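To assess whether ligand presence alters the predicted conformation, the chain was also submitted together with flavin mononucleotide. Input:
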Amino acid sequence: MGKLFYGTQTGTTVAVAESIQKQLAELVSEIKPIDRSSAADFADDDFLVLGSSTWGDGELTDDWVDFWPQMDNINFSGKKVALFALGDQVGYGYNFVSSMKIMYDKVLERGGTIIANQITKDGFDFEHTEAIVDNYFVGLVIDEVNESHLTEDRIAAWAQEIRSGLMVTA
Ligand SMILES: Cc1cc2nc3c(=O)[nH]c(=O)nc-3n(C[C@H](O)[C@H](O)[C@H](O)COP(=O)(O)O)c2cc1C
């Protein structure tokens, strides 16, 4: 079993986190807002989901920023981590979901393995993102502002990638 940690500025990410848990019920036992989490909460699980909406100019949410120094107290080695980010490809298409790359870089720096990171950019329309590596988004991309009708299907496709990454059959 694993845990999901999320940050939010205005609450949209909460419902997305809940949908993710619903679709990954066999793998995610708990969802935790990052402003009520500690580094110790990350310790026991080999599978983690980390998510944030994107603020400022491609930045993490304030709650993640406040937590960020604690990331250096977490040893991610041996942990498989799946990432998700919310953004707005129309209003902020010049830095769409770039917050996800900040999480990606830190998890790798701390020894973790990123899974479910082969998310195609097909179907999105934006100018620039930092969150693409080797032509794929490094995790699940959700745009609740413009494409909320696609959210459940996007979560479902990514959930399958997670199952393959953990080598479990649904
Ligand atoms: C002031 C402001 C800045 C934003 N900056 C970005 C951005 O840089 N990139 C992006 O993709 N979305 C950006 N967004 C869009 C939010 O990420 C999006 O509305 C998201 O659904 C908010 O989720 P939350 O309510 O969980 O914080 C911004 C929104 C606002 C209001």
